[in-house]
């Protein structure tokens, strides 16, 4: 899920990824919300986790879900480009149903946590400073806290129970068939 953050030098979008069992958190700020940024960000998250989850849950993100007619008996229409990305990494795409609070919490609650516990009350002087503070906070605070829902530290729960369940990383990054899809810096 992407979340918008306003900084003195412009808007940045945090791509927030959380593992469902351990609640291990990963996020990074980008200057744009594009398909290429989403794919590059997920690849960075997979590298940070040391593997790939078997399933990824998305909240109706347009880069992933083109149309969702499940509420009227229809189907979920996924973006073909993102389907190729998912096939390359070996995960199944799962989308939250619109207006269904039960599944949205796992996707949206970590965004509020990032806003309240990391972003608000801090000063950032550049994208580099923002990224440095992000990395330090993830390792030193976010993933070491006692998580209220699971009652354990996400990093310990991940190492003990979830890391071995991840699929291996792909041999190389995804290469889209359309070379025009590039990732802009930052």
Number of strands: 7
Strand percentage, roughly? 15-25%
Total helical elements: 5
Structural class: alpha+beta
pLDDT average, as an integer? 87
Main sheet, how many strands, which sense, barrel?
Answer: 3 strands, antiparallel
Shape: globular
Biggest β-sheet: strands ordered side by side in the sheet: 1-2-3
Roughly how many Å apart are the termini? 17 Å
Helix content: 25-40%
Radius of gyration equals: 17 Å
Low-confidence stretches: none
Order of helices and strands: EEEHEEEHEHHH
Overall description:
The protein is of the alpha+beta class and 186 residues long. It has helices at 35-49, 80-89, 101-119, 127-140, 154-162; strands spanning 2-7, 10-18, 25-30, 55-58, 65-68, 76-78, 92-95. The strands form three sheets. A three-stranded antiparallel beta sheet has the order 1-2-3. A two-stranded parallel ribbon has the order 4-7. A hairpin with a 7-residue loop joins strand 5 (65-68) and strand 6 (76-78). The protein is globular, with a radius of gyration of 17 Å. The two termini are 17 Å apart.
Short description:
By secondary structure, the protein is α+β, with helices and mostly antiparallel strands.
Features:
globular; 7 strands; 186 residues; 5 helices
SSE diagram, text form:
Blueprint: E1 2-7, E2 10-18, E3 25-30, H1 35-49, E4 55-58, E5 65-68, E6 76-78, H2 80-89, E7 92-95, H3 101-119, H4 127-140, H5 154-162
Parallel strand pairs: 4-7
Antiparallel strand pairs: 1-2, 2-3, 5-6
């Amino acid at each position: 899920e992407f979340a918008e953050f306003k900084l003195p030098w412009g808007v940045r979008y945090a791509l927030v990824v959380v593992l469902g069992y351990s609640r291990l958190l990963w996020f990074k700020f980008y200057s744009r919300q594009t398909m290429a940024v989403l794919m590059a960000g997920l690849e960075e998250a997979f590298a940070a986790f040391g593997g790939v989850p078997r399933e990824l849950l998305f909240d109706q993100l347009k880069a992933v879900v083109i149309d969702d007619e499940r509420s009227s008996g229809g189907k979920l229409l996924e973006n073909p480009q993102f389907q190729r990305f998912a096939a390359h990494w070996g995960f199944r795409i799962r989308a939250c149903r619109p207006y269904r609070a039960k599944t949205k919490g796992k996707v949206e609650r970590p965004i509020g946590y990032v806003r309240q516990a990391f972003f608000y009350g801090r000063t950032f002087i550049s994208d580099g400073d923002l990224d440095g503070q992000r990395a330090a906070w993830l390792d030193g605070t976010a993933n070491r806290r006692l998580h209220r829902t699971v009652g354990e530290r996400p990093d310990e729960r991940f190492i003990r129970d979830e890391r071995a369940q991840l699929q291996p990383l792909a041999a190389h990054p995804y290469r889209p068939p359309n070379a025009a899809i590039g990732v802009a810096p930052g």
